[in-house]
Amino acid sequence: MKKIYIKTWGCQMNEYDSSMITTILQKTKKYSLTESAEKSDILILNTCSIREKAQEKVFHQLGRWKKIKNNNPSVIIAVGGCVATQEGKEIFKRANYVDIIFGTQTLHKLPQMISEVETSRKLSIDISFPKLEKFKYSLESKKKGYTANISIMEGCNKYCSFCIVPYTRGREISRPCDDILFEISILAKQGVREINLLGQNVNAYKGSTFNRKICYFSELIRLVAEIDGIDRIRFTTSNPREFTDDIIDVYKDTPKLVSFLHLPVQSGSNKILNLMKRSYTIEDYKSIVNKLIIARPNIQISSDFIVGFPGESEIDFQQTMLFIKNINFDMSFSFIYSKRPGTPASKMKDDVDLEEKKKRLYILQDRINIQTMLWSRKMFGTIQSILVEGVSDKNIMELYGRTENNRIVTFKGSPNTIGQFVNVKIKKVHTHSLKGELLQK
Ligand code: SAH
Ligand code: F3S
């Protein structure tokens, strides 16, 4: 058997794609996974291009792999994912020892592409966008652990002015509802208790059903909640646009849907949101949050932020800071604006000084950390439902699991509870992690 080594960068969608690549290659019975790049016959890099730094990392990594190939010229190097889709043959021009360039939608063609290279030793490239073809193979993947990500849709049609995703993942397309439900029911039989529905804009999900109707996102969540064994449902990422009232209503009647929502706002300034082409205002966002609080009073919201977008003045930034306090966001992701080639924002003047961008990022992250800590502190003394995921790496006498609001809790308990939900009283609070005591049922 030949050995494959996969390195994955980027979002959960890429992680999901890499697990499909593993399944597809293992199914051929010709390949097995290895943890060591040096011992591998096929090196696969699944790339991310969301920010410039992520993209540059690709060529640094390829440079390291070139040395492995110099020692063993039969090694095959494959580059896939968003950078491969965006750059195509340019990758080969910069790194001519690369053998395969595959796209975000053509990963299922890898076995065939590898065979081609093995016989011809010529570059094999396919960065086309065949619709949903790759998902034919997702069913067969066996999941480790008790939580699983399920991709429910691909691509994005929103074309926010800063974002490269619509160009690298293609147009928005939803997987058929029955395929998703079938896949989740198989996972539930394998012991999975928590599902994370994945996509760039899951709330825009519109999947076909077996009787040719359209299943909307709200309906999909309710159907997933009916699957025996699935007791917790999350989703990432949603978008304030199309976050319709029917989705908010699910929070009223589906307790399996967690009281924690990642809803990226990006900026607290309407001027910037308009330049970003986000198609909502902060008032729209606030109105969604108000409705969510009525539906689920204990809901916690996290977000993504971009600082230093072209034209962002000190006043715009202060509006973002005010909005962060106003919504009381919990743990969030924040980034310095990165100019991406081919996007509309790349034609705007990148006019905020880098030092200023760094300062704004620091101030923003500092505030978010305070708020995360305050949310965590509120949990002191409360009883939390934890899905026990395993034995703690740091202390083998302890177990760990996650709360609904995505905090890791460690506590003493029997490994027999791994894979089950248990009640834990929170006894110690750190910003991102907690310590607790297992309560008897
Ligand atoms: N669909 C999600 C975003 C997915 S991209 C949404 O609607 O918000 C993930 C995050 O990367 C974005 O939320 C944004 O904060 C960040 N991001 C995307 N493009 C970026 C860029 N050019 N520079 C900096 N951050 C960016
Ligand atoms: Fe990107 Fe906007 Fe879509 S941030 S993923 S273009 S919603």
Automatic annotation (TrEMBL):
InterPro entries: Elp3/MiaA/NifB-like_rSAM, Methylthiotransferase, Methylthiotransferase_CS, Methylthiotransferase_N, Methylthiotransferase_N_sf, MiaB_methiolase, rSAM, rSAM_horseshoe
Ligand binding ([4Fe-4S] cluster 2): 156, 160, 163
Cofactor(s) required for function per UniProt: [4Fe-4S] cluster
GO CC field: cytosol
Annotated SMART domains: Elp3
Keyword 4Fe-4S on entry: yes
Gene3D superfamilies named among the record's database cross-references: Methylthiotransferase, N-terminal domain, tm_1862 like domain
Localisation: Cytoplasm
Chain ranges of the Radical SAM core domain: 142-374
Major subcellular site: cytoplasm
Domain MTTase N-terminal span(s) in chain numbering: 2-119
Record bears the keyword RNA-binding: no
Cofactor remark from the record: Binds 2 [4Fe-4S] clusters. One cluster is coordinated with 3 cysteines and an exchangeable S-adenosyl-L-methionine.
GO MF: 4 iron, 4 sulfur cluster binding; metal ion binding; tRNA-2-methylthio-N(6)-dimethylallyladenosine(37) synthase activity
Oligomer status and interactors: Monomer.
Family membership noted in the UniProt record: Belongs to the methylthiotransferase family. MiaB subfamily.
Protein name according to UniProt: tRNA-2-methylthio-N(6)-dimethylallyladenosine synthase
Gene symbol of the encoding locus: miaB
